[in-house]
Amino acid sequence: MTSHGSGSRATVFLVGEIDADTAPTVGAVVEDCLRRATDGVDIELTGVSFCDASGLNVFLAAALTAAADGRRIRLRHATPAVRRLFDLTGTASLLDAAGTGASVPPLRVARRSPRAGAAGGLR
Fold it and tell me: Average per-residue pLDDT in the chain?
């Protein structure tokens, strides 16, 4: 894993597997880059052979942190194994996980309220 900053964005290059053992290190590097980059961080996934929910949580937490300051996290060039995780969890649309490098609007989190009278809804 390496990182470098150039101007207002930083880039993190990941290699290998992202799982419960490696996710804390990945998270620390991404957080450090977020502190230094004024526009956000690109995370290069070309060398990642596996990513589990621990890695996904790192990416989502980084996206929330970045969005709170009007910045963006972009996941670039996800391998098929990593892309499958994003597709299965429905999170691909939250980040640029398609590999185009195009930025998406900052992630917005809204609390959903159950519809009044809906079956099984909370009141």
Answer: 78
